[in-house]
Design goal:
Shape: elongated
Radius of gyration: 23 Å
Helix content: over 70%
Low-confidence stretches: none
Largest sheet: none
Number of domains: 1
Number of strands: 0
Distance between the termini: 51 Å
Number of helices: 10
């Protein structure tokens, strides 16, 4: 019981959806709904058809949000299973040479090159003292809360793009407002990512907006 509490406390600390991941989910949701709104023809589509198309877009993103949330849980489970396997390999290693090789395999390349054998051995001693854990006991409530957060991010970001078609009877006006909203959100997402990573905000925001428009155009051209 104490072993499980030890690992659960650390999983609560390390299991986070960082800012980069949150913004990426928002951008994915925007691009998804843009592939629907971009197919609307102002001259040929009637009011009822527009509403049906937008409900289909929201339904698509609802399904995509569910899939994305479930895949997050699976990714967490697989990643932890791999970590547990590597930890067990270290604990079962017969000497420092074998354990050093295993640890270096699992470190980022830069860290593996910079760390000396003595530092690796110290890390090895600490890892071998860690309590055992099973894969089944690694999923915690926070994982499911984060999966729900991903679902909401993907689904709710479609609403600002879809709402103009629900409130404006003029399809051309709704189309312009919807596209402007989507481009503004793409720009804001790119700008925020640039601030997070240290890149130039203006250039990065324009790049993300351009890439989003390009991906949507490709999707439509390929019949998506």
């Amino acid at each position: 019981m104490q072993q499980q509490d030890f690992w659960r406390d650390r999983l609560r600390h390390y299991t986070v959806l960082d800012k980069q991941a949150r913004i990426a989910e928002i951008l994915f949701g925007l691009i998804m709904v843009l592939t629907f709104t971009g197919t609307i023809s102002v001259s040929t589509v009637g009011r009822q058809e527009v509403k049906e198309l937008l409900w289909a877009a929201l339904g698509c993103n609802l399904a995509w949000g569910l899939v994305d949330g479930i895949m997050f849980l699976m990714d967490q489970l697989v990643g932890r299973a791999h970590s547990i396997t590597q930890l067990n390999r270290i604990k079962q290693s017969l000497g420092n040479l074998e354990s050093r090789e295993i640890i270096r395999e699992n470190l980022p390349p830069l860290f593996a090159d910079l760390m000396e054998d003595q530092q690796i051995d110290q890390l090895n001693e600490k890892l071998k003292k860690l309590p055992d854990i099973t894969v089944r006991s690694t999923l915690i409530l926070k994982d499911f809360l984060l999966a729900g957060q991903i679902f909401l991010l993907v689904f709710l970001t479609t609403l600002p793009v879809a709402l103009p078609f629900l409130f404006f009877s003029n399809v051309a006006m709704a189309m312009r407002i919807s596209n402007a909203t989507a481009l503004l959100l793409l720009f804001a997402g790119g700008f925020s990512l640039a601030r997070y990573s240290g890149l130039r905000p203006g250039i990065t925001a324009l790049a993300y907006t351009t890439i989003g428009v390009f991906l949507v155009a490709m999707t439509m051209a390929l019949g998506g």
